[in-house]
Design goal:
Number of domains: 4
Order of helices and strands: HHHHHHHHEEEEEEEEHEEHHHHHHHHHHH
Number of strands: 10
CATH class of the largest domain: Mainly Alpha
CATH topology of the largest domain: Butyryl-CoA Dehydrogenase, subunit A, domain 3
CATH superfamily of the largest domain: Butyryl-CoA Dehydrogenase, subunit A, domain 3
Bound molecules: flavin-adenine dinucleotide
Oligomer: single chain
Shape: globular
Largest sheet: 8 strands, mixed
Helix content: 55-70%
Radius of gyration: 24 Å
Strand content: 5-15%
Number of helices: 20
Distance between the termini: 28 Å
C-alpha cells in the first residue's frame, strides 16, 4: 500500500485526503459471497415476512418470534457471532448488507437489528467465555431473543444519568437490580436483556438478565406511531436477582459497552437506510408510472421527475458513504479470524465512529426525505392506510430518535473530530496550511466535482478553526456551532464519497456523473448556509468579514443543467424499474 493510502486508514481522514486518492469499497466491488448473503436475507424478508405484514402490525408477537426462529434456522442471524459459538463471524460489510436486506419492512428491520446487534453484540464483545458459551449459540439460532435496555423514564440522551441501581447480596452471590427501563425493543419477545445499572450508586455496569429472573416484569406494549409490527415495552426491576456471573464486562465500565455498541447500531442504521430508501424510491416509481392525471402518467411531469432524480442522487451519495465506511472498518480489522477478532472489530468501529455518526444522521434524514417525497408522489392515496408509503412514513420517523438522537450525533461528529485534532491524530496544522493554498485543479471528467469536494473540506476546516479560536474549551457548549460544523463535515464526506466512487468505477459514465452533479449542485450551497451560521456565531468585526469573503470564494459552484441531468437519471430508473444500482 502506498504511503498516503496507509496514512488514510484512520477515522476522519477523508477530511485530509483528496477525493479519489484512496481506493474505496463500493456497491460495485462487493463480492459474490457478500451479494449472496444479502440476497438470502432479502428473499427471506420478501417470502416470509412481507406476506405477513398485516398480522405483524396487529402485534402477532408469536408470529414475530416464529419468523426470527425460522431466519435463525436458515443461518441468517449468524453473521456477527464468532464461529466458536455457532456463528459465521463474517466481515462487517456483509453483516451490514444482511441488515440492509431486512429494510423492506421497518418493523422486521428493527426486530432483527436489535436481536443481532445491540442485543447480542454486547455479549460477543464483552462477555466472559462462560457467558458466550451459554448465550451465543442460542442467540445465533434465535432459540433465545435478545434486547438491550439502556433508556430509562428520566434518562434517554443522558444515558449515564440512569437511576436503576444494583446492590450486591450479603453472600456475594447475586446483584439486586431496582428501577425501570423505557422503550425497550423486543421486550415482548426477548429471553435475554442486556441491562445497565449503577452498582453502589455510581458504578455504571452492564448485566445479562434473563426473562425468568425473579423481580423482573415486562410492562405492556407501547402504542407507537410506527414500526407497529415490532415490540416495545418498559421493564420494571424490583429487587431483581441477577447472579454475579451475569455481570457483563467490568464493574463501573458499562459506558464502554453502551457506547461502543451504539457505534455499531449507528452503522447498521445508516447502512439499513440505503436499502429502505431504494425500496421506497422503487415504490414511488411504480406508482407514478401507473397513475394518470391531465391525460398522462404522472411520470411525464417534470416536477415528478425532479423528485425521483433528487432522491436517487441522495441515495447514491449515502450508498457511497455506507460501503466506504464498512470497507474501511473491514480493512482495519484485517482478514484473520481468531479469538481476538471481536476486539479488533470493536476497535475498528470506534476508530470510524465519526463516520458511523455521519451515516446515522445522513441515513435517517435521507430516508425520511425519500419517503416524504414518495408519499407526495402518491398524492392523497399516500395518506391512506394500506399503502406501503403511508406505513413507511410513520416507520422511518423513529430513525432520527434512537441510537442517539440526530442532535446528539451531530454534536458527537464535531466533538469527536475536535478530540482527534487536540490529540494530534488529525493534523489541523496541515489542513490549515492547505487553506492558504489555491484550490487544487484536476484534469479528468470529474474535475469540477473533485474541486467541489475539496471546497467542502476547506469550508469544514475553516469553520472549525474559527470556532476553536473563538471559544477554546467553551466550544463544547456552543451547540449551534457544533451542529452546523457537523452538517458541513457530513456533506464533505457525502460529496467526497460519491465523487471518489464514480472516479473509481466509471468516471466517463453519464448516469453516474449526473447523480454526482445533482447531489453536488445542492449539497455545496446547503453546506455553505450551515457554514455561514457557524461563522457568524464564531467571529465578529474584521475577522467575520474576512471569513465570509473566504466562504464566498469556496462557495463557487460549477453550473450544470439540472433538468438535463435529471433526465439522464430518470431514464435510467425507468430502464431499471427503480433506483438504477442494486446489490
Ligand atoms: C420505538 C423506540 C424503540 C427504542 N428502543 C430502545 C432500545 O431497544 N433500548 C434502549 O435502551 N432505548 C430504546 N429507545 C430509546 C431511545 O434510544 C431514546 O428515546 C432516545 O435516546 C432519546 O431519549 P429520550 O426519548 O429520553 O429523549 P430526550 O433525551 O429527552 O430528548 C428529547 C429532545 O431533546 C434533545 N436533547 C437531549 N439532550 C440534549 C442535549 N444535550 N443537547 C441538545 N439537545 C438535546 C434530543 O435530541 C431530543 O430532540 C427506543 C425508543 C423508541 C421510541
Amino acid at each position: 500500500m502506498a504511503g498516503n493510502e496507509a496514512e488514510a486508514l484512520f477515522g476522519g481522514a477523508f477530511l485530509l485526503t483528496s477525493a479519489g486518492q484512496v481506493p474505496l469499497v463500493t456497491a460495485e466491488s462487493l463480492s459474490g459471497d457478500q451479494r449472496a448473503y444479502f440476497t438470502a436475507m432479502r428473499q427471506f424478508t420478501e417470502r416470509e415476512v412481507i406476506p405477513n405484514i398485516e398480522r405483524l402490525e396487529k402485534k402477532d408477537l408469536a408470529l414475530l418470534r416464529d419468523l426470527l426462529r425460522k431466519a435463525g434456522d436458515l443461518g441468517l442471524l449468524l453473521a456477527e457471532i464468532p464461529e466458536a459459538y455457532g456463528g459465521l463471524q463474517l466481515d462487517v460489510t456483509t453483516a451490514m448488507l444482511m441488515s440492509e436486506a431486512t429494510s423492506l419492512f421497518g418493523s422486521w428491520s428493527v426486530t432483527v437489528g436489535c436481536h443481532t446487534g445491540i442485543g447480542t453484540l454486547p455479549i460477543v464483545h464483552f462477555g466472559t467465555e462462560a457467558q458466550k458459551k451459554k448465550y451465543l449459540p442460542r442467540l445465533a439460532t434465535a432459540e433465545w431473543i435478545a434486547a438491550y435496555a439502556l433508556t430509562e423514564p428520566t434518562s434517554g440522551s443522558d444515558a449515564l444519568g440512569a437511576k436503576t441501581s444494583a446492590r450486591l447480596s450479603p453472600d456475594g452471590s447475586f446483584y439486586s437490580l431496582s428501577g425501570a427501563k423505557q422503550f425497550i425493543t423486543n421486550a415482548g419477545i426477548a429471553d435475554v436483556f442486556v441491562v445497565f445499572a449503577k452498582v453502589d450508586g455510581d458504578k455504571f455496569t452492564g448485566f445479562i438478565v434473563e426473562r425468568s429472573a425473579p423481580g423482573l416484569t415486562v410492562g405492556p406494549e407501547e402504542h407507537k406511531m410506527g414500526i407497529r409490527g415490532s415490540s416495545t415495552c418498559p421493564l420494571f426491576f424490583e429487587d431483581c436477582q441477577v447472579p454475579v456471573e451475569n455481570v457483563l464486562g467490568e464493574i463501573g465500565k458499562g459506558h464502554r459497552i453502551a457506547f461502543n455498541i451504539l457505534n455499531l447500531g449507528r452503522l447498521k442504521l445508516g447502512v439499513g437506510s440505503v436499502g429502505g430508501s431504494r425500496n421506497m424510491l422503487g415504490e414511488a416509481l411504480r406508482y407514478v408510472r401507473e397513475r394518470r392525471q391531465f391525460g398522462q402518467a404522472l411520470i411525464e411531469f417534470p416536477l415528478i421527475r425532479e423528485k425521483l432524480a433528487r432522491s436517487a442522487a441522495a441515495i447514491h451519495a449515502l450508498e457511497s458513504m455506507a460501503y466506504r465506511t464498512t470497507g474501511m472498518i473491514d480493512e482495519r480489522i484485517g482478514a484473520e479470524s481468531g479469538a481476538d477478532r471481536p476486539g479488533r472489530v470493536m476497535q475498528a468501529v470506534e476508530e470510524y465512529s465519526i463516520e458511523a455518526s455521519i451515516l446515522k444522521v445522513m441515513g435517517s434524514e435521507t430516508l425520511s426525505g425519500v419517503v416524504d417525497e414518495a408519499l407526495q408522489m402518491h398524492g392523497g392515496y399516500g395518506y391512506i392506510e394500506g399503502y406501503h408509503v403511508e406505513r413507511a412514513y410513520r416507520d422511518v420517523r423513529i430513525n432520527r430518535l434512537y441510537e442517539g438522537t440526530n442532535e446528539i450525533n451531530r454534536m458527537l461528529i464535531t466533538g469527536m473530530l475536535l478530540k482527534r485534532v487536540s490529540k494530534g491524530q488529525l493534523l489541523l496544522g496541515d489542513a490549515l496550511a492547505a487553506l492558504e493554498q489555491p484550490l487544487p485543479s484536476f484534469d479528468d471528467p470529474l474535475a469540477h466535482q473533485r474541486t467541489a469536494a475539496a471546497q467542502l473540506k476547506r469550508v469544514g476546516w475553516m469553520v472549525l478553526k474559527l470556532a476553536i479560536e473563538r471559544f477554546g474549551p467553551e466550544l463544547e457548549s456552543r451547540q449551534e456551532v457544533l451542529a452546523a460544523a457537523a452538517d458541513v463535515i457530513s456533506e464533505a464526506f457525502a460529496v467526497d464519497s460519491a465523487v471518489a466512487r464514480t472516479l473509481q468505477v466509471a468516471p466517463e459514465n453519464e448516469l453516474r456523473r449526473a447523480l454526482v452533479n445533482l447531489y453536488v449542485f445542492e449539497a455545496l450551497p446547503r453546506a455553505v448556509v450551515r457554514a455561514r451560521t457557524a461563522i457568524c456565531c464564531s467571529a465578529e468585526g474584521e475577522a467575520l468579514a474576512t471569513a465570509l469573503s473566504q466562504l464566498e470564494g469556496l462557495a463557487r459552484i460549477h453550473p450544470i443543467d439540472p433538468a438535463a441531468e435529471r433526465e439522464v437519471v430518470v431514464e435510467a430508473m425507468l430502464g431499471a424499474g427503480g433506483y438504477p444500482f442494486g446489490n
